[in-house]
Amino acid sequence: MKTFFATLAFIFVCTIGFSQEDQTSNFWGNVRVGGGVGLNFGDGFFNGTLAPIAIYDFNPYFSAGVGLTGSYSSQRNVFKSTILGGSLIALTNPFPEVQVSAEFEQVNVNTNFDSRFVTNADDNFWANALFLGVGYRTGNVVVGIRYDVLYDEDESIYADPWLPFVRFWF
Question: Is 17 helix (H, G, I), strand (E, B) or coil?
Answer without folding.
Answer: helix
